[in-house]
Amino acid sequence: MASFNIVVLPGDGIGPEVAAAGVQALKTIGEVFGHSFNFEEKRIGGIAIDTDNNPYPEDTDRACLAADAVLLGAVGGPKWDLGKMRPEQGLLAVRKSLGLFANLRPMDVKASQVHRSPLRAEVVQGADLLIVRELTGGLYFGKQTRTETTATDECVYTVAEVERVARVAFDAARKRRNKVTSVDKANVIETSRLWRETVIRLHKEEYSDVELEHALVDSMAMHLVTRPTTFDVIVTENMFGDILSDLASVLPGSIGLLGSASLGATGKGLYEPIHGSAPDIAGKDLANPVGTLKSVAMMLRFSLNLTQEADALDAAIDAVVESGFVTRDIGGTASGSAVSKAISDKIRETALTAA
């Protein structure tokens, strides 16, 4: 029996609800496959500002550094919009502390999901892509200044930062369909010119077997909604990746369906759905847990090296979604907790059948 220590950061809004779904799934995996998951809950985001006057308290940081993996719900909300401290600062802080420089956001549109997409079936059916977003550089981590009449945000990238995230993208492409699209704004921005030059050199030196193409971020936004099936792995800088991954999230019908993994050099990761805290539906059991459960599957695969268990969770998610037992954001009537329970039940049912 393997034992793992998981830190849970429920956060704000619907965060506690979807985080609870993730914990339930891990407990089910432990029950079925004979593993032990030890959970430690800590504060982050707005709730931590209220209780600790710090969006990322020191005891939260200590726990995350000691854990095998971290599960995050969501942070933010209108309550803290005008404050000097923002909940999102907690998210940036945990990424920086754990050295999580690559954010992986997979998106696919299965045949059973096509009717939920806002795009025509012939455009979106079969889309299967992975966005690799650089996570600790760029505008989000640059120096900021503000006066009454001006504001500045500094965007800085180094060759080393570009190389390490590009390697993640090229390595992922070798396991998928062997194609990388690097997105930048090299016709205008100097950091993008550095980005493109570095990716080209790395490709030539180490990854010439992988197909490489380049796209400007503005045209890429158009291509994602006009020909999404032509992309495999997309790699880009922090802000562009944030925007493009949210755009891609609507292709299968709801941002609530997609998870993410934030990884560094050590294998430890932060796992979270890509949606926000949705305060308008918090506490109503309406939140779609699928994005969190897909994130948990990525946790099992990338940080805990439990491939069979990850496959079992992914299969259970797909089976329940394909059955139509879904939350209202994708046309269903089920509550979030009911969908979460159905997925756990499917894991048990499949295990019993296999036995």
Automatic annotation (TrEMBL):
Name the InterPro entries for this protein: IsoCit/isopropylmalate_DH_CS, IsoPropMal-DH-like_dom, Isopropylmalate_DH
Instruction: Locate the residues binding NAD(+).
Output: G276, S277, A278, P279, D280, I281, A282, G283, K284, D285, L286, A287, N288
Task: Give the co-factor note.
Answer: Binds 1 Mg(2+) or Mn(2+) ion per subunit.
Give the residues the record marks as binding substrate: R95, R105, R133, D218
Important for catalysis (site feature) positions: Y140, K185
State where Mg(2+) binds.
D218, D242, D246
How it assembles, according to the record, is: Homodimer.
- Indicate the enzyme's highest-level EC class: oxidoreductase
Pathway(s) it belongs to: Amino-acid biosynthesis; L-leucine biosynthesis; L-leucine from 3-methyl-2-oxobutanoate: step 3/4
PANTHER family (alphabetical): 3-ISOPROPYLMALATE DEHYDROGENASE
Similarity comment text for this entry: Belongs to the isocitrate and isopropylmalate dehydrogenases family. LeuB type 1 subfamily.
Q: What is this protein called?
A: 3-isopropylmalate dehydrogenase
Q: Please describe what this protein does.
A: Catalyzes the oxidation of 3-carboxy-2-hydroxy-4-methylpentanoate (3-isopropylmalate) to 3-carboxy-4-methyl-2-oxopentanoate. The product decarboxylates to 4-methyl-2 oxopentanoate.
Q: Which reaction does it catalyse?
A: (2R,3S)-3-isopropylmalate + NAD(+) = 4-methyl-2-oxopentanoate + CO2 + NADH
